[in-house]
């Protein structure tokens, strides 16, 4: 659970309260979702939000326990910067960003949240940053280029002997 908001409407007999809940759900292995639920009771809002979060789960590209590269994202007025970190660093983040990253299964990352601190926009910006991550292998595959340094088996070319190979003149050296 990230945030619960209470809103009120003034009517003839007094105030009527409504609640909204922002929930993040994840499996800790690269899938995370964000859900918002609104209801007249807190429990109903949380239930609706968790259902929405489970239905909206997306896959995230992770490299071990960290992210593959740096990413900067904006959503509304919230700006989020995520940077990969060495093993053992932990999740260096604020409350909202931390909950989204831990649900996704990220264990080592450096973050900075700039601009708005609206919980919904910060959570959506963090989710947008995570979905914008791509692994190096996937980028090379999309371009149709072999990954440099990868140990891919190279096809063995059959040696074809040309009868005139020995008779060809050697190039002149200058």
Tell me about this structure.
- The chain is an alpha+beta fold and 174 residues long.
- It has four helices and eight strands, in the order βββαββββαβαα.
- The chain has helices spanning 42-55, 95-104, 119-131, 136-143, and strands spanning 3-11, 14-26, 31-39, 58-59, 71-75, 78-84, 91-92, 109-115.
- A hairpin with a 4-residue loop joins strand 2 and strand 3.
- Helix 2 packs parallel to helix 3 (119-131).
- 25% of the residues are buried.
**Low-confidence stretches at least 5 residues in length (pLDDT < 50)?**
155-161
The residue-averaged pLDDT reads 87
**CATH structural fold name:** Ribosomal Protein S5, domain 2
The outline comes out as: elongated
End-to-end distance: 76 Å
Pattern of helices and strands: EEEHEEEEHEHH
Whole-number total of structural domains: 1
- Helix percent band: 25-40%
Instruction: Calculate Rg over CA atoms.
Output: 26 Å
């Amino acid at each position: 659970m990230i945030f619960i908001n209470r809103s009120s409407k003034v009517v003839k007999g007094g105030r009527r309260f409504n609640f909204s809940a922002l929930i993040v759900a994840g499996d800790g292995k690269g899938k995370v979702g964000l859900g918002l639920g609104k209801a007249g009771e807190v429990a109903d809002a949380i239930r609706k939000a968790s259902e929405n979060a489970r239905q909206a789960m997306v896959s995230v590209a992770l490299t071990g326990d960290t992210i593959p590269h740096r990413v900067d994202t904006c959503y509304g007025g919230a700006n989020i910067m995520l940077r990969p970190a060495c093993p053992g660093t932990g999740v260096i983040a604020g409350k909202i960003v931390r909950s989204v990253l831990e649900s996704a299964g990220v264990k080592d990352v450096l973050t900075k949240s700039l601009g708005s601190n609206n919980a919904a926009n910060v959570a959506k910006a963090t989710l947008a940053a995570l979905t914008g991550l791509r692994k190096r292998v996937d980028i090379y595959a999309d371009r149709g280029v072999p990954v440099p340094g990868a140990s891919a088996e190279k096809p063995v070319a059959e040696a074809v002997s040309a009868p005139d190979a020995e008779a060809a003149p050697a190039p002149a050296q200058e």
